[in-house]
Amino acid sequence: MGFLARGYLRLNAIEPDAILQRKAQMCLEWLMEHPSKGYSGYCWGNHFDYQTRGYYASAGTPTIVWSSLIGLTFVEAFECTGDRKYIDVARSTCDFVMNDLARIPGPVGFCFSYVPGTNVVVHNSNVLGAALLARVFQHTGESELKRAARSSIQFTASHQNADGSWFYGPGKDMHWVDSWHTAYVLDSFDLYARSTSDTSFASLCRNGWDFYRTKFFLSDGTPKYYYNKTWPIDIQCASQAIETLCRFRAWNPDSLELATKVALWTIANMQDPDGHFYYQRRRFWTNKTATLHWGQATTLSALATLIETYGKA
Question: What is the mean pLDDT of the chain?
């Protein structure tokens, strides 16, 4: 619902339309009515039990990833509509990040845990939390949010590899480098810098951006899963790439062209005749499952971002 709302908000920004406005409002209201219960503020998680390499979570357990991404959408909704209830929701989500998640100290700064009650250290989730705190700080001026965001950013900044990349996490079982999690890190560094006017991490972000744009795409726009191998090609690799390439267009003029290549490749190779986007393409077969979040919502948001970006170019 967060990605759908973001897509509708951006489509409405291109050409205002009452139907799009109602759809965005419906998604945001649904999110306000369906948070995870029992935490310091608005937060969200999966509606099913699941097990990862690092932790087990029962249905309804909120994660910093979903909560931060949704919180960022509420900030955008406030900026688009001026309705203060949306920034109030985003501020409430900051309470979840600040109060309900462990802070794992590092040599520099600290890492927000992925879920409450654990010490799961993951770089993209950590800085997504920082991005939300920074974006809300931009509107409330609360110095505690900025300080926490900077400490979180410092932690992940200190773990950047020499080639500009980041592992998924510092643990030995998390030493892989993939496309959309790298993009989440880059987006978060950019959101932090824009929201706080802190340019301390600009060169570091530039190195990460150079790694991302040169390692994760084939010449025809195919979005690779890993920096060192192509398969499987995941719809999230495509949708997040489009958003991140649009975000950093000022750094490289050809990034908008590459975003367009990725979009056209995705439409040609991962969209079904009925309109839905496939989950994954593998070397010899395709998983055509129509997943709402993983495929349809993220791609709607990405394509809306691309069209909106062309309108600003």
Answer: 96
Per the structure, how many domains does the chain have?
A: 2
Q: Quick one: 55 and 124 in the same domain?
A: yes
- Name which of 149, 162, 152, 160 is nearest 182 in CA terms: 160
Residue 10 domain boundaries: 1-34
User: pTM of the full predicted structure?
Assistant: 0.96
User: Bridge-partner residues for 281, per DSSP?
Assistant: 233, 286
Distance separating alpha carbons of residues 125 and 152, to the nearest angstrom: 10
Angle at which helix 84-100 crosses helix 123-140, to 10 degrees, equals 130
Q: Are 115 and 61 in contact (CB under 8 A)?
A: yes
Confidence of residue 50 (pLDDT cuts 50, 70, 90): confident
**Is residue 313's pLDDT more than 80?**
no
Sheet holding 233-234, edge to edge: 233-234, 280-281, 286-287
* Alpha-carbon gap, residue 62 to 178, rounded angstroms: 23
Burial environment of residue 25 by CB neighbours within 10 A (0 to 12, 13 to 18, 19 or more)? middle
